[in-house]
Amino acid sequence: MKRLDRYSTLAAKELLKEKKTYGIFHIVFRPAYTFINMYLMRLGFLEGYYGFVLSVLYSFYTFLKYIKLRDLQGSGS
Fold first, then answer.
1. Is the pLDDT of residue 74 over 90?
2. How far apart are CA 20 and CA 73, in angstroms?
3. Engineering a disulfide at 39: which of 2, 48, 55, 56 sits with its beta carbon 3.0 to 4.6 angstroms away?
4. Mean local confidence (pLDDT), 6-14
5. Nearest to 11 by CA among 77, 52, 63, 51
6. Predicted pLDDT of residue 31
7. Cα(45)–Cα(62) distance, integer angstroms
């Protein structure tokens, strides 16, 4: 979880540096899309429990990344 936190922070800072923006789509629907993409399209379900957990964690990473981008843009850092 520490690694997930660290990498989502780095990704948010990179998005900020690239002047990317966020919207409700990124915060609500992007994590869901990430889960569906990893679990169904990339056949994560074939890995059973571990494929499910990995898909959930990666979608949570995506959620954190955009929440942190929102915080960074709001604080002006």
1. no
2. 10
3. 55
4. 96
5. 63
6. 96
7. 19
